[in-house]
Amino acid sequence: MSKHSPSPYVVVLAGSASLAIAMGVGRFAFTPILPMMLHDGVLDLSRAGGLATANYVGYLVGALAAMAVPRRWDHTFVIRLTLVATVLLTALMSAPYADAWVALRFLAGVASAVGFVFTSGWCLAQLSGTGSSIGSAIFTGPGAGIAASGLAASGMTLLGLSGSTAWLVFSALSAIISAIIWKTFGNNSSPSDAYSVGTSTRASGRVPKSEMPLFAIAYGLAGFGYIITATYLPVIAKNTIPGSPLLTVFWPLFGLAAVAGSLLAARVRHTADVRLHLVVAYLLQAVGVALSVVWHGAPGLAFSSILVGLPFTAISFFAMNEVRRIRSTHHARYMGLLTAVFAIGQIVGPPAVGAIMARVADVDAGFNLALAIASIALVVGAGVYVVMIQMFPGERSSTKVVKVARHP
């Protein structure tokens, strides 16, 4: 870090806040607002699935765009651009022009993916030479954003506010947070590859061609495995325990669990094979997804929210560290690749729910079938990692890389 660079704690706080806006609002504010919009009668579950899919398609496009951005571009300019875009696009969702909502959710997804990649990249570049071990706290941002948006939506629901008002409130909160962290993202980043740090045992480039595709497939299965719960959790709760005062608790619980999971992920032994951590995370999430199918009622939904939320950001944390082991250079490019494949997994989720709902008479039965398929996808993803461990015995990175790898 240069003498003009912010302190590591400021970097982490700003990075976490930026991810909270990009992910907690840009991607997932729709989830707690969805029951409000359904209550307002401005959309139904089928149209809701279309809006969710548009956002996930936008996330895919944003991930691909992040891969194509020239390395000489200033990362902080891009981060600021995504913050402004998220604030504006969120506010525009309050307008009573339903035909424009698909485009708005698509663009919000683009901004979310670009913000995720560039915020993570900038923070890693700032922290990589400091010796600080707090970088993993950046990944508390998405969970914190989810929890905050869920709590805010709960309060607005109790006050009887409309979905359009909720969009304006989230936009205003995002604008306030963006203003607070704006100066942190100054013109102090270099145009170099922010992820090219350390020396890996794979630096020679002798990497089996099939390793990265298998890894990407497994990561994509995680995108499909969690997204049905992450998109429809409040709706599932409303159908399972109608009229319960706990209906608005489960989504914030998911977010808080994600925060806890990201902090716990930083404390695991980095000398072990990261793919083993991913296997455990996938299986834990698979149990959480399945739990809401076999254990109806508030306790089942609460435990499901926790078990799905705990590995949510931890999976990304482990996966991005593993990419830096597999590919010793151009990490940002491969991070974008994984983000794109993850987005494809997410895109499949809402249409799958829509297709199932069209073929079953009971909404609860439809959700149960969709969640069961999602849980199986996570188990399959864990199995892919097990196969990879056998096919490609892990060459652990050097001590220097392991230390840097604590910064997602």
UniProtKB/TrEMBL annotation:
Organism from which the protein derives: Phyllobacterium pellucidum
CDD domains: MFS_YjiJ (cd06180)
Entry's transmembrane regions: 53-70, 77-97, 103-125, 137-159, 165-182, 214-237, 249-266, 278-295, 301-320, 332-353, 365-388
Protein name per Swiss-Prot or TrEMBL: YbfB/YjiJ family MFS transporter
SUPFAM superfamilies xrefs: MFS general substrate transporter
Record has Transmembrane as a keyword: yes
Entry keywords, A to Z: Membrane, Transmembrane, Transmembrane helix
Transmembrane helix keyword on record: yes
GO CC terms, sorted: plasma membrane
